[in-house]
Specification:
globular, two-stranded antiparallel sheet, mainly alpha, about 425 residues, single chain
Length: about 425
């Protein structure tokens, strides 16, 4: 499943995690302060500005802060590109000669980088919403103070962000489609090369034709979702931490330090535990479902070539197993979905409940409130990775079990065990 496409998959993924942690720690410990010396922003008019003289007016200070933010952001992007390029270059060198190295190494790195960029777009939108809703509050509270030109100018700034985000998303989906098919291609070649040893396994044709594609697609989707959750958490948790200064009191609890972060973590842990408990039987039922479906399909296929196969009684009995397992699956999904959708719908109102004392006392503006709600939802969504992905994880477990049977069949056996295998195959 992994070795056919990735180069030393265990070391590859472990090295990525360690390198990512090193790069993140390096940025916050020292690299962020080195931009004035090493940034190439000056080539694009984004160099670090000199500190204004003492006593500078508010306009000069605002311009200085804007220029500093733009220069720091460029330096951040430059640093991240360098980190990705180093990791990809080293692994491409180590994987030279591997047929799928460019797709598994460079392709994986590109997908991770695009995921990180899309999280940064979410951060930009969060900042934009804050300023835009403050403008709306000012316009509604002081009629005539905001001109129509100013309103449309603010809207036009977000249009650029959205156009870039759309272009990147479209390219990402196109690239990921090719990436997933290459992974399926690698697995397909590996399994078909060993077809004579695998053909006796029940549902062998389905596992090669269908399960390889589904496995690659689901693993890629879950992997990207997990990375997106981690990156979103790293990006928005500091924002939510800072915005928590506006919220010092929670209903029924009273004063709590960093109240919003506290609520997001507790609510997400509660939901994850609740959904895991409600869906504990689903992986086994999904696996059994594929087994009974494969047995039924296999008998039908035999019936196409052999007149004495696929008799009505046999088909009725096999379909009875399919029916029984589906009904058990429906029943378990019934209470699982009650818990899941109930939790997700109630969760929409959790931040509003947490903000109630601060809203009543007018502790912040509408723009700040919008930024708080968006940051809270982003952090909460990151913590709820298992909640949102549980059904997909269940499906992946079922597919993994079936493909694992292939790999177990392909493992070399000790010499004394060979006669047993020959007897089993015959």
């Amino acid at each position: 499943m992994f070795n056919s496409f990735f180069v030393r998959p265990g070391w590859f993924f472990l090295s990525f995690v360690l390198w990512a942690l090193l790069c993140i720690c390096g940025w916050y410990l020292s690299v962020a302060d080195l931009g004035a010396s090493f940034s190439l922003g000056s080539l694009f008019g984004l160099d670090y500005p000199p500190l204004p003289a003492e006593g500078a007016d508010d306009g000069m200070m605002a311009a200085y802060q804007t220029a500093m933010a733009d220069a720091a952001e460029f330096w951040f992007y430059q640093y991240m590109l360098l980190c990705y390029a180093l990791f990809t270059g080293v692994w491409l060198y180590l994987a030279r000669g591997h047929r799928w190295a460019k797709w598994s190494v460079a392709g994986s790195s590109l997908i991770v980088f695009i995921t990180w960029f899309q999280v940064q777009v979410s951060v930009m939108l969060n900042e934009w919403y804050g300023g835009f809703y403050d403008l709306i509050q000012n316009a509604l509270g002081n009629p005539g103070s905001t001109g129509i030109g100013e309103y449309y100018a603010e809207l036009s700034t977000v249009a650029i962000i959205i156009m870039v985000a759309v272009a990147v998303s479209v390219f990402n989906r196109f690239f990921v489609s090719h990436y997933v098919f290459r992974w399926r291609h690698a697995m397909n070649d590996y399994y078909t090369a060993n077809w004579q040893r695998l053909r006796t396994i029940e549902g062998a044709s389905q596992r090669i034709q269908e399960d390889t594609m589904r496995f690659a697609t689901i693993v890629e989707n879950l992997g990207v979702s997990f990375l997106d959750s981690i990156m979103t958490l790293l990006a928005f948790l500091p924002i939510l931490w800072g915005l928590s200064s506006y919220v010092t009191e929670l209903p029924l609890i009273g004063e709590v330090p960093q109240a919003l972060v506290f609520v997001a973590i507790i609510w997400s842990i509660f939901g994850t535990a609740l959904l895991a408990l409600a869906g504990i039987k689903l992986p086994g039922l999904e696996f059994n479902n594929q087994k009974v479906e494969a047995a039924y399909r296999k008998e039908l296929v035999y019936g196409e070539d052999h007149e004495h196969r696929a008799q009505p009684y046999t088909l009725s009995e096999l379909f009875g197993y399919v029916r029984m397992n589906y009904f058990r699956l429906y029943k378990n999904y019934l209470y699982f979905n009650v818990v899941r959708y109930g939790y997700l719908n109630v969760g929409q109102f959790v931040p509003l409940i947490a903000l109630a004392p601060s809203i009543i006392t007018g502790a912040f503006t509408l723009g700040v409130m919008q930024r708080v709600l968006n940051a809270f939802n982003q952090v909460e969504g990151s913590f709820q990775y298992l909640v949102n992905s549980w059904s997909t994880i269940v499906e992946l477990q079922s597919i993994h079990k079936r493909l694992k049977a292939f790999e177990a069949e392909l493992k070399p056996l000790p010499p004394l065990a060979e006669p047993e295998r020959a007897e089993k195959v015959s």
